[in-house]
Amino acid sequence: MIEKFLAKELIERIEGKLQRNFGREPEDATKQQIFRAVCLVIRDMMSELWLENQEILNDPVKKQVIYLSMEFLPGASLRNNLFNLGLSEAFQEALAAYGQNIEELYELEPDAGLGNGGLGRLASCYLDAVSSLEMAGHGMSICYEYGIFKQKIQDGNQVETADDWLSLGDIWLIEKEDEKEEVHFGGKLEEVWDDTGKMKLIHRDYTTVIAIPKDMLITGFDSRVVNTLRLWQSTSPISIDMGLFAKGEYLKSMEEKHKAEVISKILYPEDAHEEGKMLRINQQYFFISASMHTLVKNHLKVSENLDDFHHHYAVHINDTHPTMAIPELMRIFMDEYDYEWESAWDIVTKTISYTNHTVMPEALEQWPENLFAKLLPRLHSIVKEIDRRQNANLLKAFPDEEALRNEMAIIHNGKLRMANLCVTASHTVNGVSALHSTILREKLFHGFYRMTPDKFTNVTNGIAYRRWLCQANPKLSELIEELCGPGFKKDASELAGLLAYQDDASVLERLRSIKKENKLILAEYIKNHNNIIVNPDSIFDVQVKRLHEYKRQLLNLFHIMDLYNQLRENPQMEMQPRTFIFGAKAAAGYYMAKQIIRLACQLSAQLEKDPAVRDRIKLVFLENYSVSLSEMIMPAAEVSEQISLAGKEASGTGNMKLMLNGAITLGTMDGANVEIYEAVGRENMFLFGMQVEEVDQMNQEGLYSPWCYSQGNANIANILELMSKGINDVSFMDIVNSLTTGFNGASDPYYVIADFESYKQAQKNVTAAYQDINRWQKMSLANIAGAGIFSADRSVKEYAERIWGIDSIYDIL
Ligand SMILES: *Cc1c(COP(=O)(O)O)cnc(C)c1O
């Protein structure tokens, strides 16, 4: 158990921090200073817990996981840490003594937005679970000075502004100057022969960048185990070249420093998309090299050599972005510790495991070989050797299948394919939902699966459900606790206890009234931010996620435009009012995604202008979708739009957060939607659209003609016409063309038009179900009750048992 603190003790501590850090008494401290003082008090408590476990953690036979990810999306930490430590009430009371409301401090905190979306959020959910399960595990990533951009909507267009999260978010970071590392870029390789006649490679003329660790402490719920998320910040060993400065070359004298610092300056804002950029390679190698050096050093503090490295560390690669861990570990073992290739390879491959997050070709990382060789010559030579040896294996395994061998090669046509390198070097490879893992085995990695079937497994994603239930939706959480006891906070499967109440009219009524209260809170937010008054009795229909064509926000907009056309034609039409809520950031350079945002915004304005429709359908585009915003939206949502083209969404996790809050999924058989369906049954969700097999068949036949569809379907033709003629006086010809004739590629590649009728019917079913209040609430309850398996605790337990080989640090060995 974690110590309890009285409000009185906390007041003393907070006052102490205010006095010593800011020279202020509470009555003349600013809100920011109080926020900082409170965080510092909590940080001290977390540090004490962290120190308590250092001895166990440094024991080389107690294995720990190192979770490598280019992205982490922790969101805000204050509320989460207080909740995990069981100190929310005590701090609330302490702050009340100053007339401070803790909610206001929560609102003050900027999100740590060191990720784009689902992938980074998953990494953060897993760290929470590792700590909550009292396991040892650390995240490693980059301390981006600017995280994911802040999105503003101006004149219906997305505008990006810099996210200066460190101005207050730095309060959670502890700089460990003494644990800094050197990272070497560029230069050339030289072969030298030592006295014993052994050839050694010497790396010369490289550029050195310093990596400084900034540690964020990660608490778990009701757990004494505090782990760290280590974020590396880049800097130069030379802050200024005095020679150049003396010559009057002022800008040049600081160039080295700027070049080094640019590495950790900003997060690439592309989600599920890669571009072969130099800075991106530098970012990856920077955090990987620093991280691997730290692991090796720490291991050698407690062990004689690196032979047992894999007993100490399970190194996990979150998507291919950290793949360089493979050649970098090989390099350190061979060049710095004199290991032979075979023994180094043996240890490295027992250490590394890999999660694939996408099958979409544009997201699979491939580096131009010549660029890679220039930036990282030694890593390039190691990857070449891995490829050479792998090719020999492939030739043995598939002597008569040249095409397959080419597909599986690590280096091919002047490109380094990171996914193939990962699969080759990992002891385990997993997808993130049952369907996605099947697609990996049967398609993307089929050759590898034939060679090494036991390597492949599935771990369905999960979420830090306490954040979206207990913290974000306290009323629902209290109701569940009252009905089922507090056990669900430790064991999400206990949510199933709710099913006992599915026919209890008073419970269903309380669920309804909680949803209504949450809708009112969101309605207030919408009024203040969008200047739109929404009807709290309308259906809150939510699609929040990154903007990507495969996620098909456009299909949702098609349905709204169709309703609009119908209402204009038939103004007397009876319909259950709906509020369509969108939240989505588009990558800054993703033209079509930005057009779709523009369409949503113009449609919103057009509907609002039209007195004949605005009381029945409304569209609200909430700007700057982020973890904190999601915590307000999920509790108020009633319909969860999960409408990606089947086979494209690896798992999704927004779908899990929404069902947990009682929203009902309207979705395709894609990603984890399939498992939601298995958990709640057909009667508790709305399924539509083509299945993966049908999509595959359509692709193979190659006969799909969206233009023909639209000719045969007046509703679709009308929608296309509306978009061409203009919505709120803006025409969307590029979107129309992308669907009908193709815009820089195939027409309607994500089958929006093909799935439209099926989607429309499913939407009709939603309305019908909603009108039966009892039925709807029962569905809602079934979704909350069935959400237990989507806990990140469950996912992490599976990783721990089946992949990493770790367990609670308190378990006797
Ligand atoms: C959960 C989450 C996501 C992932 O949403 P999907 O619907 O699974 O794509 C993205 N961004 C944020 C801020 C989230 O909290």
Kindly summarize this structure in a few lines.
This protein has 813 residues and is α/β, with parallel strands linked by helices. The site of pyridoxal-5'-phosphate has 13 residues, from helix 7, helix 27 and helix 28.
Describe the structure.
The protein has 813 residues and is α/β, with parallel strands linked by helices. The protein folds into 2 domains: 60-75 and 111-460 and 798-812, Glycogen Phosphorylase B (Rossmann fold, 3-Layer(aba) Sandwich); 465-696 and 754-790, 3-Layer(aba) Sandwich (Rossmann fold). It has 36 helices and 23 strands. Strands 1, 2, 5, 6, 9, 10, 11, 12, 16 and 17 form a 10-stranded mixed sheet that branches. A 6-stranded parallel sheet has the order 20-19-18-21-22-23, with helices on both faces. Helix 7 crosses helix 36. The longest helix is centred in the middle third of the chain and has 26 residues, at 505-530. The protein starts with 6 loop residues before the first helix and ends in a 9-residue tail after the last helix. The model has no long low-confidence stretch (mean pLDDT 96). One of its GO terms (molecular function) is glycogen phosphorylase activity. Its EC number is 2.4.1.1. It comes from Sinanaerobacter chloroacetimidivorans. The modification N6-(pyridoxal phosphate)lysine is found at residue 657. InterPro entries: Glycg_phsphrylas, Glyco_trans_35, Pyridoxal_P_attach_site.
